[in-house]
Design a protein that fits this description.
By secondary structure, this protein is α/β, with parallel strands linked by helices. It folds into 2 domains: 125 residues, 3-Layer(aba) Sandwich (D-Maltodextrin-Binding Protein, domain 2), CATH 3.40.190; 88 residues, 3-Layer(aba) Sandwich (D-Maltodextrin-Binding Protein, domain 2), CATH 3.40.190. 29% of the residues lie in helices and 28% in strands. It contains 7 helices and 11 strands. The strands form 2 sheets. It has a 6-stranded mixed beta sheet. The protein has a 5-stranded mixed beta sheet with strand order 8-7-9-6-10. Helix 3 crosses helix 5. The chain is elongated, with a radius of gyration of 19 Å. The two termini are 36 Å apart. 36% of the residues are buried. Bound molecules: phosphoribosyl ATP and zinc ion. The site of zinc ion has 3 residues, from loops.
Length: 221
């Protein structure tokens, strides 16, 4: 990749995609059309946008494969709990979209109604690092069961006693007979910067882009 072009990693499709695309558009970035492409060039500035899965974004930025990335704090901190180089990444700014909360939840009218009730229980989650950190801080010993998705069905299926999952409207919890009793993390999309980002010839483009992002965010408030 050219050292004079800035590279930004964004989610290919999913809940972060629309907000990321909208932010880029409002910041005046015109991306060349390329169907299903991993990399799309901006037509009006030395910027390349890489479209990947959100879980890969912290690693791409930490390794220097991309200079910057747009990712949810939930994914960033989960990866940071596993990889020191991700933990060292710098958050440039919060972006104000894809807001959600990582919450502990358990079956309605069950025996688990507060964090202390989790002692000796099983908790299903896609975020084992964040869940473990939270439990340790509270001095609670529970067994964490990592799942790739559909965490909300775990208690009903007898896989776990409780869950730790992302919530936005709360409709998914309700539909599964679950009630949240604690917030582990409040999350939104953030712009992250890699270790080498400021050193290459793309630093000026980065400065301009960050300024425009901040303008877009300010105009929304
Ligand atoms: O394919 P890829 O790995 O890139 O995407 P993904 O499937 O891992 O992630 P995606 O697109 O679902 O979410 C991307 C990011 O959006 C998350 O990492 C969060 O930062 C953010 N976000 C915001 C959410 C939600 N809101 C959200 N509601 N991510 C997931 N959810 C889930 C929630 O867990 C529940 O199962 O959406 C469901 C509906 O939520 P309720 O509360 O509105 O019912
Ligand atoms: Zn993902």
């Amino acid at each position: 990749m050219s050292p004079d072009r800035l590279t930004l990693a964004v989610q290919k499709k999913g809940r972060l995609f629309e907000g990321s695309e909208d932010l880029l558009k409002r910041a005046g970035v015109k991306l060349a059309y390329a169907r299903d492409a991993l990399l799309r060039r901006a037509e009006n500035m030395p910027l390349d946008v890489m479209f990947i899965r959100d879980d890969d974004i912290p690693n791409f930025v930490a390794s220097g494969a991309c200079d910057y990335g747009i990712v949810g704090e939930n994914v960033l901190y989960e990866m940071a709990s596993r990889l020191p180089r991700v933990a060292r990444l710098e958050t440039v700014t919060k972006l104000g979209f894809a807001k959600c909360k990582l919450k502990l939840a358990a079956p309605n009218e069950g025996t688990i109604q507060r964090v202390e009730d989790l002692a000796g229980k099983t908790i299903a989650t896609t975020y084992p690092g964040l869940t473990d950190k939270f439990l340790k801080e509270r001095g609670i010993e529970a067994e964490i069961i990592e799942m790739g998705g559909s965490v909300e069905v775990a208690p009903r299926m007898g896989i776990a006693d409780a869950i730790c999952d992302l919530v936005s409207t709360g409709a998914t919890l309700e539909a599964n007979g679950l009630v949240a009793f604690e917030t582990v993390l409040e999350s939104e999309a953030v712009l992250i910067r890699g270790p080498r980002a400021a050193q290459n010839g793309a630093a000026q483009t980065a400065e301009l882009l960050i300024e425009r992002f901040q303008g877009v965010i300010a105009s929304r408030q």
